[in-house]
Amino acid sequence: MDTADGLSFMISSSELDKLDIIENQDGTFHLIYENKSYNIELLEADYLNKIYILNINEKEISVSLKDELDMAIEKMGFSKKAAEIGGEVVSPMPGLVIRMEVNIGDTVKKDDKLLILEAMKMENIIKAPVDGVVEKIVVKEGETVSKKQLLLVLN
Length: 155
Hints:
This protein is mainly beta. Helices cover 10% and strands 47% of the residues.
């Protein structure tokens, strides 16, 4: 589990089953953990991306849940989050730059194609993680890149 504050912790299914948590009639929850009491309210839920906004003891916290499959995919470098670090777009895997889809100065929207990266005989579309303008292109067509190598910068 990751929070917006950068905290990361793991809770196994067996540990989750042991938590002393009660759902109140109003849809909120009460949790006792390590002899501390917590009042929890679910404010927003993005079930598809497994991101939840919680109010815990009057503090708003954003939580991202990951199961074993999510962690395995991230570890292999196929995670969307691995492809974005601010305005920098990095390679999620080692591969060969087949085709650039943008030029310096181009305006892109989130999820627009930036380039095609061939990895393990498959063409992978690297998309814009955010809206922006292509400020710098670090790689060129035909270049071999490594995992987490900077590809281009969006501003």
